[in-house]
């Protein structure tokens, strides 16, 4: 008797990875569109990452997402699919093409799509932005804001050298500012983005005084667990429009799913409610 062919399999890798809601998202779409396949979590320790990438095809995977802390290291281990991702040096989506493992970043796409959905009247080209953080997600967000022609992108990180390096890599209009200079940077910004892990469950909160921020400024946080971080609570209490990290997570998943399974899925209110219920549980 012949064996049934295995279903296409994708996954998310990270260390740790148990917190990731990516399996809920992708398996929801697989069920919704009645596509044979599965999407798993795979915990990969940093010291095992190179071996995992080298043996990718042998594990029956057609592609995967990459989460912290692997995004920048993976970019050095795979073939980069596009010049923008090569410039970023950070990868969150992998797929096999003719035996070659390719990588790209969809984080910037996810951030801009979430921003457009939440505040459709905000046009980056008319505003100054302040981004906190200098890791892989920050790189993708800053590059996306560049592509959206943000007027000025101020970048602050507790380790000033990392912010300077990112600004040097990406160029104008990215300007590094010292952490001690946050009050002035906030006062000049129409959008504040927390692109760090601070505020995430198990991490310290992001301690930033929002009082210099203009009253009509928007506050966005890439953290989605918890959905309502202390930063967003404070922002809402001050009357700012606030954007949680779930929208970015949902929208960044779209290009990968389309690449692996051949159909562009929709980010719907039902999908968001599914993830919100899981976060609350």
Write the layout of secondary structure elements.
Layout: E1 9-14, H1 22-32, E2 38-43, H2 49-54, E3 61-66, H3 71-75, E4 79-80, H4 83-88, E5 93-97, E6 100-104, H5 107-118, E7 128-132, H6 136-147, E8 152-156, H7 160-170, E9 174-176, H8 182-187, E10 191-194, E11 218-221, H9 230-237, E12 241-243, H10 246-261, H11 269-280
Parallel strand pairs: 1-2, 1-3, 4-6, 7-8, 7-10, 8-9, 10-11, 11-12
Antiparallel strand pairs: 3-5, 5-6
Molecular structure report:
The protein is α/β, with parallel strands linked by helices and 281 residues long. Helix content is 37%, strand content 19%. The chain has helices spanning 22-32, 49-54, 71-75, 83-88, 107-118, 136-147, 160-170, 182-187, 230-237, 246-261, 269-280, and strands spanning 9-14, 38-43, 61-66, 79-80, 93-97, 100-104, 128-132, 152-156, 174-176, 191-194, 218-221, 241-243. A six-stranded mixed β-sheet has the order 2-1-3-5-6-4. Strands 9-8-7-10-11-12 form a six-stranded parallel β-sheet, with helices on both faces. Helix 1 (22-32) packs across helix 10, helix 5 (107-118) packs across helix 6 (136-147) and helix 5 packs across helix 10 (246-261). It is globular and about 55 Å long.
- Distance N terminus to C terminus? 44 Å
**Strand residue content:** 15-25%
Low-confidence stretches: none
Tally of separate domains: 2
CATH T-level fold name of the largest domain: Rossmann fold
Rg value:
19 Å
* Proportion of helical residues: 25-40%
Oligomeric composition of the shown chains? single chain
Shape: globular
N to C succession of SSEs: EHEHEHEHEEHEHEHEHEEHEHH
Largest sheet: 6 strands, mixed
Strand order of the largest sheet: 2-1-3-5-6-4
User: Which CATH-level-2 architecture of the largest domain?
Assistant: 3-Layer(aba) Sandwich
Q: For the record, what CATH class of the largest domain applies?
A: Alpha Beta
CATH superfamily of the largest domain: NAD(P)-binding Rossmann-like Domain
- Structural class comes to alpha/beta
């Amino acid at each position: 008797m012949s064996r049934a062919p295995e279903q296409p399999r994708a996954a998310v890798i990270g260390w740790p990875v148990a917190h990731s809601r990516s399996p809920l998202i992708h398996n929801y779409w697989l069920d919704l569109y009645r596509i044979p396949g599965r999407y798993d979590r795979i915990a990969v320790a940093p010291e095992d990452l190179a071996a995992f990438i080298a043996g990718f095809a042998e594990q029956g995977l057609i592609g995967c997402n990459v989460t912290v802390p692997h995004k920048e290291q993976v970019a050095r281990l795979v073939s980069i699919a596009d010049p923008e991702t090569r410039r970023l040096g950070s990868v969150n989506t992998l797929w096999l093409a003719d035996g070659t493992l390719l990588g790209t970043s969809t984080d910037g796409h996810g951030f801009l799509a979430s921003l457009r959905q939440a505040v459709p009247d905000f046009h980056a080209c008319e505003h100054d932005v302040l981004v906190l953080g200098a890791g892989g997600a920050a790189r993708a967000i800053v590059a996306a804001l560049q592509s959206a022609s943000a007027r000025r992108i101020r970048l602050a990180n507790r380790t000033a050298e990392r912010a300077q390096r990112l600004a040097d890599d990406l160029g104008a209009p990215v300007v590094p500012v010292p952490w001690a200079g946050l009050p002035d940077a906030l006062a000049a910004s129409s959008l504040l983005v927390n692109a760090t892990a601070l505020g995430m469950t198990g991490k310290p909160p992001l301690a930033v005084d929002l009082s210099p921020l203009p009253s009509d400024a928007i506050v966005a946080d890439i953290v989605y667990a918890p959905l309502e971080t202390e930063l967003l609570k404070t922002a809402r209490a001050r009357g700012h429009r606030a954007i949680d990290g779930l929208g970015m997570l949902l929208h960044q998943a779209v290009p990968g799913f389309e690449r692996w399974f051949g159909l562009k899925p929709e980010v719907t209110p039902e999908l968001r409610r599914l993830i919100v219920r899981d976060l609350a549980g």
